[in-house]
Amino acid sequence: MIRHPAKRDLLTYAEGLIDGNVNAAMARHVSGCSVCRKEVESIRQSFELVGNAHALKPSQDLSRRIMTGARAVRPRRNRFQRTAYRTFAVAKGAAFVAGLAVVSAVWFSFTVMGVPANGAGHTAAQSTNAAESGIRMAVDELHRATSDIEKLAGAVIARDQRPSSRREWHYARRLVNVNAQLSAAQAALERNPSSPRAIHLVDTGLRHQRDTLMTLIRERSL
Amino acid sequence: MAEVSGRAARIQSTTVLRILRPEGLPVDERGDEQLMLDHGDGSEEAFAELLRRHQAGILNYIYRMVNNRHIAEELTQDVFMALVKNAHRYEPRAKFTTYLYTIASNIVSKEWLRRKRRPLLLSLYAGWGRGKGDDSFDPLEHVGDIKADVLGTFKRGEISEAVNDALNELPDHQREAFVLRRFRDLPYDEIAEIVGSPVGTVKSRVVRAERALRPLLERFREYL
């Protein structure tokens, strides 16, 4: 019974990453074994096909955006400042540990010794509750808006998958763009939920999506 | 004596006068790690050079992972912003590309998590336009180029689309290993460091990915 090399060894052989005696032994086996030869050829063909795929060119706008962003956040620290930063980071860590110890001690004294919580604690809890309810409202709002749009989208795709007229193509194309922008805006919002610009973009995107879907429905019912 | 003078003449003839800046080599001749350290010290042109060298690679890596140009551009921006924010903490312990692609890989993982939580509504109309993907290849960009190989461009466009669609079918970790190996041409040990798995596992993932892609790309073999 022929013992075939492992698939991952065939892969590294097909990529030309094996050298020396192992490579010679592998080449001998592959030249005499039709199964392994076919496997190696298939791997090479797949890689060649994949190598033919287009690569994206970064737009000028992207480079400009990155450079502008970098200028805004770029830390201007020299080597001395870097050392100082590290020292500061260590000090910060120590302070954090000390703070944690104090908080634990206070918590321990409250819970074990039975000292009642003061008014400040109540205020903090109230403000946290208010913030949580605010976020929940925003999420509910978003869900409501998306479910409306889902219904509209359902009405559009229920009739026909492909737009029939030139105008329909136009609106469909616009919808694709709106979706892409909305997707990017939503990604930004999820990354930074408190960003007013991201909220504005998602809001605008949803409104555009709704308008375009309604226009499509109108187009189709005429 | 004649030999020495001959050697001196050879050296003289091959020596090129180079003007070095105060910080050493010109920016485009410095290594990535050095550029990153210089950037940490506040050099804007070092960052611009790093951006020039790696922007396309990162954009394409992310694009193959998320299959959407808009999101890929935004995540590319995030990767470089993370690079800027952490520049002062950078220490050249590993290759710069390992460091950079690890950041990119983490950002892509977060994007996958976000996608899983996000409603599917936003991809309802992705099928309109071209294929399931997005606008990565615009044929209009190639119109007017007299020298362009029209058939070749068309075939490459088709292959691109098919490869993107096929990559979408792969599990995330297989796709990541495959993209880093075949599209970015990184060595296996570097990929292993980036994805945080042993080299053998990475190789197995690439093998499995290749075997999964094979039937999906079968009809394009005639183009080779």
Q: What features would you describe in this structure?
A:
- The complex is a heterodimer of chains A (222) and B (224).
- With 222 residues, chain A is mainly alpha-helical.
- Among the domains of chain A are: 45 residues, no CATH class; 88 residues, no CATH class.
- Helices cover 81% and strands 0% of the residues of chain A.
- Chain A contains eight helices and no strands.
- In chain A, helix 1 crosses helix 3, helix 2 crosses helix 3 and helix 6 runs parallel beside helix 8.
- The longest helix of chain A is centred in the middle third of the chain and has 41 residues.
- In chain B, 63% of the residues lie in helices and 0% in strands.
- Chain B folds into two domains: 91 residues, Orthogonal Bundle (Rna Polymerase Sigma Factor, Chain: A); 90 residues, Winged helix-like DNA-binding domain superfamily/Winged helix DNA-binding domain (Arc Repressor Mutant, subunit A), CATH 1.10.10.
- Chain B starts with a helix and ends in an 8-residue tail after the last helix.
- The longest helix of chain B has 23 residues.
- About 11% of the residues of chain B have low confidence.
- Chain B is mainly alpha-helical.
- Chain B is globular.
- Chain B contains nine helices and no strands.
- In chain B, 38% of the residues are buried.
- At the A-B interface, helix 1, helix 3, helix 4, helix 5 and helix 6 of A face helix 3, helix 4, helix 5, helix 6 and helix 9 of B.
Write the layout of secondary structure elements.
The complex is a heterodimer of chains A (222) and B (224).
Chain A: H1 7-14, H2 21-32, H3 34-51, H4 60-73, H5 79-113, H6 119-159, H7 166-191, H8 196-221
Helix pairs in contact in A: 1-3, 2-3, 6-8, 7-8
Chain B: H1 2-14, H2 32-40, H3 44-66, H4 69-85, H5 96-117, H6 150-168, H7 172-183, H8 188-195, H9 199-216
